[in-house]
From TrEMBL:
Belongs to the zinc-containing alcohol dehydrogenase family. Keywords: Metal-binding, Oxidoreductase, Zinc. This is alcohol dehydrogenase (NADP(+)). It is an enzyme of class 1 (oxidoreductase).
Amino acid sequence: MTTTVAAYAAPSAKAPLERTTIERRAVGEFDVLIDIKFAGICHSDIHQAREGWGEAIFPMVPGHEIAGVVEQVGPGVTKFKVGDRVGVGCMVDSCRECENCLAGQEQHCVRGNVGTYNAVGRDGEPTYGGYSQKVVVDQAFTVKIPDGLSLDVAAPLLCAGITTYAPLKRWGAAPGKKVAVIGLGGLGHMAVKIAHALGAEVTVLSQSLRKKDDGLKLGADHYYATSDAQTFKDLAGTFDVVLSTVSAPLDFGAYLSLLRTGGALVNVGAPEEPIALNLFSLIGGDKILAGSMIGGIAETQEMLDFCAEHGLGAEIELIEASQVNEAYERVLNSDVRYRFVIDAATI
């Protein structure tokens, strides 16, 4: 039988979110029913609820940073049992047959992964996200949250954690490497923590020095204001990796100038506007301009285990569900340190 649960949804593009009810599918053979405890608010929730990235599906229940407890399992479930602490990130299905899925890169499924919300599942029904009381997810797209992480600070790791962990690992953040993180927000603060734990020398590049003390406490070795033109002169040719976490267009030529020969500028922030780029800023120094999109399920589990081992939870502000519209505006104004998390008990 389906389950009716309370949720917060955007009824149309740019409309305020409001409390409503949705139907969750019956628990299938390989499904788990999760009693959601906490749901993080990601900037991408706002992009999608306001159609900043293109046409969307409404009503929309956002939320792809989900932490909760297993309430029921299907008869074929082997990975989880009732009472397990689990998480769900940005996707809830894929074809599971293409070369990318078989390589553990389900986020790059050739047929397209199924997003946790604002997507259509293999059953033809729209998906609804974590701003809700419960969710039903296939065990293959559910991960274990280690005991070393409390569920509230673990929730943002299901997007912000894997979104920064995957490129930092791929591009070699490690002892002896210099990593710069552009922006100290929901993504950026986790990037700093993770890069530091990986052993890299970490620099934050932010518009101002307003959050400098925070950045240093989170693990940064250095902190510079990008509003100061001298920063780009002083740091020219310094970094092995520059990770951009911001959702605004940048002067890519200026940031590419900060890389060493062969260095990489990797983007995980996704501005709504196109960017301009003079290719000579890439050609000189054999530099790399790259992107990265979350990570596969196995890598997400690896990230959670790594964060638990190093005590890396997100820095959060816990809110009631009724505050979600205010939280959206505060995110847009960079007025959060550093991730809003909804207490699902208030939905």
